[in-house]
Amino acid sequence: MGSVTYQSTGSRSKKKKLDKSLKIKDVNSPIQDQLKNQQAIVTDINYDDILFDRIKAYVDGKFEELYEKLDAFKISTEYVVKNEAKKVKTQVLMKNGENVPKMTKVTAMEPFKNMFPINDKEQFLIFDKNLEKDDEKNKLKNLFRVIMYGDSDITVIIRKTLSEIITPTVQLSYSGTGRKVHNIGKENFSATHTYNCLKEVVEEKFGDSDQSKSLRVKLGSFLANAGDRDGGRRQRAINSDNNIQNNNNNNNKNNNNSQ
């Protein structure tokens, strides 16, 4: 009786140990599978491909920078070459088309003695009307030839010629094309006989060049800035300061009266 009971108890004990070992195996199994999967992923990574892609991206970026610099250099070089070509063309035209003036500036100015620079618009209109006569027109053209001789910059030529014959006061009455809005605006200087004289001498000097073609535009810019010459800008600043001071004084006076 005692031995049978002992065997029965031992059998149940072995069964319990077997069950525990099975449960431990079941718990650890997913973790082991996960580790195996991660090892497989790491094994599949091709580090040579990653390194190649990085090197390729770096080299492509450097080549892109180089192409941009080459394009910028090309544009800059073309700009310089074109400008130098224009200068050479202008010099050739000047040497072929410009003759040494046959008179000095003093001689050329003699017909306009005590007249230039004209400081009144009405006086300028009378002078300009008189240029309808060929002999008067030729006198002005001779003066222009002397004034602009040796100069290759149309901006300098415009400044020297116009400043010789009319003051900024008269210049302020004109613009390059006389554009008006609702009949309000400045007179058209390019419609004057004075402008035509200047234009003919410029074309005689430069031919069909960029200097000649830009005459009207550059002249318009010169006239537009007439108010800044002969202390005009400084005077406007002084007037502005005076106006501000007067306004402040008036405001202070009004405040004192209200008190």
From TrEMBL:
Residues 1-11 have a biased composition (Polar residues). Residues 239-259 have a biased composition (Low complexity). It comes from the Eukaryota. Residues 1-20, 226-259 are annotated as: Disordered. This is Uncharacterized protein.
